[in-house]
Amino acid sequence: MQKTIVVNQNKYTVVRLLGHGKGGYSYLVENDGMQYVLKQIHHEPCDYYSFGNKIEAEIRDYSTLAKTGIRMPAMLEVDTANERIVKAYIDGPTIYDLVKNGAMDDAYINQVREMAAIVSSAGLNIDYFPTNFVVQGGVIYYIDYECNPYMDEWNFENWGIRYWSMTQEFIDYMEKH
């Protein structure tokens, strides 16, 4: 029997788990023959990041990032009571998968640098970890909504780039997960 998740009276059938991050679980879901991402907020402890109200943060961060014009999936539906978000689904491999499988392309590094310039000029950092970026048709999309005030130590060149190739940091992460 397939699992169904309801968001504002709309039923979504779970196809599979896409990922589990510090803020929630993301599922590939279907509704009326269309595919979406449904994020279910969780309250599991995270020893390296502190949260306030996660659903409010998702909504606020989406609004903030939408103003920058970076490529990201649209937020289509929010159920604050059940802490669920429905997003457009961007079909394609993550940067993480491309690095892991030796299929990374320098064009993606150039694209993320362009994205980093846009968000840093807006006074922001995004989470540059490679699981947060999907490639579709040769174009990268930031599929998370997390953003924070800009700090040099968390920008792409000082932190994110460490995970966009087969570095020791990437290998260590891959071995633990």
Describe the structure.
The protein folds into two domains: 7-88, Phosphorylase Kinase, domain 1 (2-Layer Sandwich), CATH 3.30.200; 95-176. The protein contains four helices and ten strands, in the order E-E-E-E-H-E-E-H-H-E-E-E-E-H. It has helices at residues 54-66, 95-100, 106-121, 168-176, and strands spanning 4-7, 10-20, 24-31, 34-41, 75-79, 84-88, 124-126, 133-136, 139-142, 147-149. A six-stranded antiparallel β-sheet has the order 1-2-3-4-6-5, covered by helices on one side.
Can you give the mean pLDDT? 93
What CATH architecture label of the largest domain applies? 2-Layer Sandwich
Tell me how many strands there are.
10
Number of domains: 2
Spatial strand arrangement across the major sheet: 1-2-3-4-6-5
List the helices and strands and how they pair.
Layout: E1 4-7, E2 10-20, E3 24-31, E4 34-41, H1 54-66, E5 75-79, E6 84-88, H2 95-100, H3 106-121, E7 124-126, E8 133-136, E9 139-142, E10 147-149, H4 168-176
Antiparallel strand pairs: 1-2, 2-3, 3-4, 4-6, 5-6, 7-10, 8-9
